[in-house]
Amino acid sequence: MTGKLEGRKAVITGAGSGMGRAIAVRFAAEGAAVAALDLDRAAAEATASTIAQAGGSAHAVQVDVSNGASVGAAIAQSVSALGGIDVLANIAGILDGYAPILDTSEELWDRILGVDLKGVFLVTKAALPAMLEGGGGTIVNMASIAGFVARGGGVAYTSAKHGVIGLTKQMAADYGLQGVRVNAICPGAVETAMTKRILEEGELAVIESINAVPAGRHAQPEEIANLALFLANDESSFVHGAAYVIDGGWTVV
Ligand SMILES: NC(=O)c1ccc[n+]([C@@H]2O[C@H](COP(=O)([O-])OP(=O)(O)OC[C@H]3O[C@@H](n4cnc5c(N)ncnc54)[C@H](O)[C@@H]3O)[C@@H](O)[C@H]2O)c1
User: Fold this and answer.
1) pLDDT tens sequence across 169-209
2) Total tally of structural domains belonging to the chain
């Protein structure tokens, strides 16, 4: 590895599984000290231990990104463990089972928006003061192709991911001059626990849509981590408020 994040202090949510885990492992391999945050404490610890075994530096922190008090405590713990924050990757998220509006209860709407959109708001708001104190940094938000088009989820998920792109743009406009770059990643189908669940339980039309990828396959989490690394390090120094589609061509057909 090339040390593209040497000396940086990185907080990653959703680090216990899938893309969050791949991003935490990759950032650590590139020299970052990592706080691996997840709702699932054991999963966060497993990621931290994988990083430590490879010679990297990682701290596992339990958090519910949809809960302000939990986020406040987790970010305080991360700042104290890392000594600051230079990089934030908001990756934690949940899917809504591709439910259309008539099948979306108020509870489901609140749960999906709570994790997928409010979670990004809460974690970013809590982490930003430490980032500004250190002179700025980079934020990578996990949106989705569902942040651009329909058919990437149900109404709650699609609304939340469109919101993540809006939040990303507004943050870039508000904090660019203070040295904070904020960008979003918009993957198509990636081979993770989330995709596995929908491929096992979803309706045939949903499964066919997920599988209709010009690349002829789904992404590996590590391929998404490559893009996260680009947006987190100085190679992307003029990229502000962008939403990068990485979908194997899913949205071109
Ligand atoms: N898998 C895909 O095809 C795909 C495509 C586009 C975008 N995404 C997005 O990528 C992100 C990661 O998804 P993944 O596929 O790696 O899923 P995953 O299920 O493998 O991992 C998600 C992680 O988030 C954690 N999490 C869930 N709720 C949380 C909460 N309230 N607080 C803290 N952590 C919480 C889970 O414990 C899990 O470790 C999500 O935001 C998802 O919406 C996924």
Assistant:
1) 999 999 999 999 999 999 999 999 999 999 999 999 999 99
2) 1
